[in-house]
């Protein structure tokens, strides 16, 4: 077996790679054959690395190492690093060890490649999982089609492009939507553009609701919200609007100082959509967007805590107040 070092901003592809390893373990002994550690102290780490698999077959150890490599703190002495390197170089048979570092897209953090631990891990099957940029449409389509194939589905290019228009480059959301589309397509195995449009909350839908609220057309906004509840749970709608509002706020505050290309990379939006949105928002104030986002956050917390007696009514009040 072997040691692997996975890192990068595309956390979902890292999760899929780890799941591929887990799928090879004996499901009857998964509780014993899979161990997950979160930046453990030296004693616990070295003990895990020297684990000897027992009679239940292959074993997988996952080490979340983000704090080791993204913070300025030094976690290990030189002698301890030598022990770690030795343990990794002598990985027992039937044992796979994966060190993974998931880097947040929004925080601008980078792995400190000067760290001795990085240099050690970089000797053991390193792989960087980079975000697929929104302008790399062909790569996103390829990814969507491959995931659909694993679910015994076929999805055409038009449907893929529609998903990309709605979601951007969030791979985890693509996978979630494919699962929903599989239910809609059953017993067929082909996903079409019409099916995607049927279940997706479009950017235009969200823009319409928000624009109507800001223009004080609250009756129309509530009507649009009611239509969307036929497709999605109110919490999903709130989450989608909040995500959109976060991007809009950034566009409003940074469009004068950043290029549309840079904003596209920052927000995971196609550059054409960035230009289009900036134009649509020219008469909208950032303060109104911030206020609406706070209202929705408050009602989301209320719903999740069980304080909301009538969810739809709570959301409606948040949208118009």
Number of helices: 17
- Work out the strand percent: 5-15%
Total domain count: 3
The CATH architecture designation of the largest domain is 3-Layer(aba) Sandwich
Give the assembly state of these chains. single chain
* Relative helix content: 55-70%
SSE arrangement, N to C: EHHEHEHHEHEHEHHEHHHHHHHH
> Structural class of the helices, strands and pairings?
alpha/beta
Number of strands: 7
Strand order, biggest sheet?
Answer: 2-3-4-1-5
- Uncertain segments of ≥5 residues (pLDDT<50)? none
CATH topology assignment of the largest domain:
Rossmann fold
Distance between the termini: 59 Å
* CATH level 1 name of the largest domain: Alpha Beta
Query: Rg from C-alpha positions?
Result: 23 Å
The CATH homology group name of the largest domain: P-loop containing nucleotide triphosphate hydrolases
Account of the protein in words:
The protein is α/β, with parallel strands linked by helices and 321 residues long. It folds into three domains: 3-128, 3-Layer(aba) Sandwich (Rossmann fold), CATH 3.40.50.300; 137-199, Helicase, Ruva Protein, domain 3 (Orthogonal Bundle), CATH 1.10.8.60; 203-320, Zinc Finger, Delta Prime, domain 3, CATH 1.20.272. The chain has 17 helices and seven strands. Strands 2-3-4-1-5 form a five-stranded parallel β-sheet, with helices on both faces. Strands 6-7 form a two-stranded parallel ribbon. The N and C termini lie far apart (59 Å). 25% of the residues are buried.
